[in-house]
UniProtKB/TrEMBL annotation:
Lineage, opening ranks: Bacteria, Pseudomonadati, Pseudomonadota, Gammaproteobacteria, Lysobacterales
Alphabetical list of PANTHER family matching this protein: NAD(P) TRANSHYDROGENASE, PROTON-TRANSLOCATING NAD(P)(+) TRANSHYDROGENASE
Keywords: NAD, NADP, Nucleotide-binding, Translocase
Function: The transhydrogenation between NADH and NADP is coupled to respiration and ATP hydrolysis and functions as a proton pump across the membrane.
UniProt xrefs under SMART domains: AlaDh_PNT_C, AlaDh_PNT_N
PROSITE patterns to which the protein is assigned, alphabetical: ALADH_PNT_2
This protein's name: proton-translocating NAD(P)(+) transhydrogenase
Amino acid sequence: MAFILGVARERADGERRLALTPETCKKLVAAGAQVRVERDAGTGIGVTDEAFAEAGAQLVGDANAALGDADVVLCVQPPSAEAIAAMKQGAVLVGSLQPESDPARAEALRARGIVAFPLEKLPRTTRAQAMDVLSSQAGMAGYKAMLIAAQLAPRFFPMLTTAAGTIRPSKVLVVGAGVAGLQAIATAKRLGAQVEGFDVRPETREQIESLGGKFLDLGVSAAGEGGYARQLTDEERAEQQRRLGEHLKNVDVIVCTAAVPGRPAPKIVSAAMVAGMKPGSTIVDLAAETGGNCELTKPGETINANGVTIAGPLNLASMGAFHASEMYARNAFNFVSLLLKDGALAFDWDDELLAKTVWPPRPQPETAAA
């Protein structure tokens, strides 16, 4: 028996992405789903209702019609408590849900018995890479952050030889070498800048250098066991900060990308460091959504601090909504595929990707005493 899968237009301010594309819609229909899509849901990504209809979707007039009796609901941003209350009892909800961040949303999920799969909780394993929305969306965010930096900076990125003389390339530093940081490094390199990357994990050197960047070694290693960074001592951190501050005096552009899932972003660039930078320098803080890596960042604003421009853009992935949605929708489809057997919903709780992602967490079976 076919199951109903619903997708409504995203209603969060500034959100243009969608958790479904005609490509994944067609695959879901082939997998046994009856797909219902709210009309005009694809406007933000330039996809027409006709394209969804051709992919096999049933177009409906509003969110309630799309989600009200859906067995599976896909979303990008967490739905409101009111939207959850209107969903079918026991429905499956898949998306970036952040249930712990909003008590009303968490209570609504519990009250309706929603089987929620917050994709941000997905284990970071090789098998899960095809479903990893954090990585796919971080790639777009890093790309857009560097383009914003290039737009705000009062200088060219590449070296140019002109009739008015030679223009030296901009010196760009990317703080954090996760997915977003590496994409930012690659983008700055394509734009012709002189690029450096900094991360407390020394093993990121090879990744930074593979993209044409130079690893900024401040002489303080945070290498720990198992590939994880250890916590620096107060003395080590002070020395690292001193050396970074000295280095920033000669940097034209900083793009900050360091983030820790579920925790405030680490403060790396202090107000004193900003004060020591050259007037006309630019900082773009991709970590603004969780407080920012720069002490002076104001989320959602672009400010001037003693001649240094500091931007704290929000929801950068939505700025590249078409390709961000394409990646997100594939991630979501790959995860939903784990919930299906012979065209019907079937939960294999022995699968760690399901068991470790589901919210509320399922009770673990008791282990027999030895």
